[in-house]
């Protein structure tokens, strides 16, 4: 499962690869204009249609009344809970009582194993996108160009889930976060440098992904405008450095790196172990490809819980504990060695980038070498607070008379039918 | 200072009569049995508007045409470039063959055509007209009694607001150039919903009147010792001031209810672009608002520009503008005409059709707003490729309250365009017996279309 | 038109006699004027103030924080300048509405509670009642600043009446003077720059511009705003009529940082940068274009021009060849260069290979004079002649035989234009207008560098009046050596300052001023001061008067 060079050797290679470098023969720079999880869509049209990836289409909508009955509520209680009149249901944050369907009414969002695994339909197709992370062409998917051994269990696990499924740039999750990025929430820039004379075929290439505080500018067609200037902003967390080579314009890692990227999702940190890139330099100057690696799956689950369990479940037709079990089941990498717990899962992100100028942090010159700026970065800031506070996957309504919980009374007292909940 | 008018002046002076939607209440004894008109036979108020688009319509080098119907008289056939008029055909008269007679003055491209139509005089220079445009005469004759004497609108998204309405020949009106700006002007601050039950006179109006009176008191000393050219400018200033005073005076009177008046929601602004699709969308949105402005008795006269004489419009994504195509495009050997030019001409005419449809969509009394209006549609040129000022396409649309025998094609090769201008003025009741100068002077309206 | 009898009967006998004369450009009065009768003042100019002049005036009189949110009337360009066109413009009905709303808003802001104390220096005895003394002081002070001269008693009385009506109706002194202020802001004496000629005491049969009109002219030329207190004082004392007094004011105004405002307004007019107000480009062809780019391009050109000609006082002709300019992050994307500064604007020097040097290679000129989706050598060439050489191109003749023009969608724009030039109806004008534009063909309709078109390298060689040059650099050198360039600037400054087109009668004057300009090293501030101190600058043109009966026409 591990790549031939061990982690320690990989680290040494990395350190040796990035000494204070002299200027390279060539430098190319881009700004990321779209990034999303690489979830291959196997249908011919639509966003949730059945296809080779998910023959039954996206995961089906869920009969929540039945789920609650299965969890031990009476049918009357379950129906009442799904009724908007119930006081523990907020039109914005959903029905909080949904959390309490584990054993002894445990909160299944923070305690997913308190309820049996409801299952999550995995991807059953053989085509997938991403990078070969373990060097084993016998496991994994076949890529779009016929490449074997693409490791992307994240896709296998979650690829039929409504929030991830869809053609390029059309899945609901991707749209939401990339819109925010393109409207200025954050900017990622890419720098590639090489020692050879021909950038398209160069054995000694280095690539860096950095953050920038300069906002993306949109053009007259709503796309991202070309040729803008971005200054690197040293970041304590988000920085990715790779050693690579180029062949026929494709930049591919020659050794793995451990990196962290800004994730276009609720949980903003995407840390990838054994990360590798495969990026094609197109004739029009743009860059298109993948960053693959093993990411910790528990934070992914937690990210969805922290986005308010009841909302995610209702809008994306999923039982969150099923996501937990499925990720655990399909995790395929342990950072501590083959005997250790598989805390990480293979993953790939599609990256599209457009030509841009990238400058050193002081803005003075163009970047011509790949270096780390972490040392000069300010301490990491907390992610910006949302307008609401999520506790254990729920947003409690402080003003409500009735609070959701293991001992909550579900049905109103039968004595005064009109005073229910007021 | 308030506008002095009484029933007598209404009957005598304001042509077009007074209708259900004007300041004084209508006494039943004055209405005829149907409640549609005053007993003397004066009709509901007639509205007038001009509609201009640039670059004419397509003719062919061999004397053919893509727009002139083959038959004359009523029931003309719809030709390719008139396709957009199909649904309102019976309310539109088509005039072909009319031309500018320059009396030796050069044909100033994209200028002489409509300057002659509007002023009756072939202009000497290409930055001014040589007289006032006749829409101002009509506005003076029938435009009183409403908040705005005239509304000037420009859908073309040009570098400067386009208007061909002038009293002096030198300075033209300032048009509203976006649907939102037009909306703000009509329905924004200062608008009084005629159908509102809560009307109260606004005391600030009288204060604003006193602001203006401090200036008008100075008029005599301001105009003293002033050169002729400067007097013209100050005259225009005071004319504009008077229109503001008129607005304020109207604002002090309780408006009569207007059944057809429904205040629309504010429009969305399209992305700023001069491409044909956007200009056409603007036209439609502005037509809706103009129609409702007239139904709400905010104005009786308007001037509308779709594209300027030397139009800058283009098909989105195309590197050549329409104007250049009219000159550059060769005549197709098989088809016998310029196909791209004709296609775009059809797209431009689509806007005119849409415009009239919007006017026709408002039910008013026993007909539609279009039935009670007269709209003159015209361009700056005939066959644009050669800057022809022969065969300039001209249209009269709308019933003019029954006076216009619409739905006819009148072909009159070589006759002056001023005949149509004169006809328009007479159809709306302006007291005009002749129009134009030199070779374009005429006292013969086109009686075939006059009831 | 009044009859001869009417004229003779008019009380203004002298003006009647003058009315019979035609335009005079010299000051001596007609021979038949009676020697002992003094010449009455005559209004010789009525020019609507521009948007920037309006804004500067309000900022100077009331403070820079007054918000001005209105649609100003469109300007008209005549003889290449808006300043000349403005003498034909008045207020349209819709314009009047806009300016009225704006005047009300300014008065509202100026007299709003917190700033009332600074705006009104006297206090009414009873805030709920009229106080004529305080109102009079208020009207007098602001009236003088807005009308650029002291108010007459009648003008003041009219405003006091308005103020008292307002106070009586609302029970608030300040509401009353607010109306009076609105009335001042709507008065033709504010909205228009009125210039008056009076009898010249040194030569009673001649006219001269009165002191306030002179103060106005130099203030608007050099600072683009209403005359300040010192200028008004020089006018009222008569100092401005003396050579020493005039030079003192000119030196003061030119030396001040506010001279930049005046220079900016002049170049915005001459370079026709108002085209940016509504510039449209096709997003499919030029996706980078948006309003931020348009605003930035305009600012780049103004900043560069002012820096070169005012701050650095360099030779005017360097404008065509200097590769030093200013850019911001937006423009950097169009110029396709990195932006290496954390400031909003930064100085930038273009490299040799960028082919950019001088004003004609800035995005502003290139994008303004092009099509929405393509370049236009003809438009650019026409504008080079019109703006920089004062050579307007005549309108195309109506009878051009377009049937001979073959459309070639292959090849370059240049190729198609040269085809046109084979056509005898087109050659005469196009062989003069097109060459400068052909030399600029390495820049597309947005101003981006492109050296290939349809697979072929774009040829930027050109031939004008027998002189050959290549590319933007070649064009710059050609222009630099052309004597029409400085002469045209001189002519533009003069026409802009006096608000009149020039003609052959001004030729000698312009030639003299151009010689002086040359000997100053072609330095702009010297040129403006030099022209403003010449007698021709203040020479009034006495118009044919309107008939007196017209003046007395009732409303």
How is this structure best described in words?
The complex is a heterotrimer of chains A (422), B (451) and C (555). Chain A has helices at 7-17, 64-70, 75-82, 153-158, 172-182, 298-306, 309-316, 320-330, and strands at residues 26-37, 89-90, 94-95, 187-194, 202-212, 229-233, 240-247, 250-253, 257-262, 269-281, 287-296, 344-355, 357-359. Chain A is α+β, with helices and mostly antiparallel strands and 422 residues long. Chain A folds into two domains: 7-56 and 126-158 and 165-297 and 345-369, no CATH class; 60-119 and 301-342 and 385-417, no CATH class. Chain A contains eight helices and 13 strands. Chain B has two domains: 45-179 and 270-449, Alkaline Phosphatase, subunit A (3-Layer(aba) Sandwich); 200-253, no CATH class. In chain B, helix 4 runs parallel beside helix 8 (276-295) and helix 8 packs parallel to helix 10. Chain B is globular and about 70 Å long. The model of chain B is unreliable at 1-43 (pLDDT under 50). With 555 residues, chain C is mainly alpha-helical. Chain C has helices at 4-9, 13-20, 51-62, 82-85, 93-110, 113-119, 132-147, 153-170, 173-186, 188-191, 211-222, 229-237, 243-255, 259-270, 291-311, 329-335, 363-368, 377-389, 413-420, 424-439, 471-480, 484-498, 507-519, 524-532, 548-551, and strands spanning 42-48, 192-200, 203-209, 324-328, 345-349, 452-453, 456-457, 461-464, 467-470. In chain C, the strands form four sheets. A three-stranded antiparallel sheet of chain C has the order 1-2-3. In chain C, helix 18 (377-389) crosses helix 20 (424-439). Chain C is globular. The interface between B and C is large, with 89 and 89 residues.
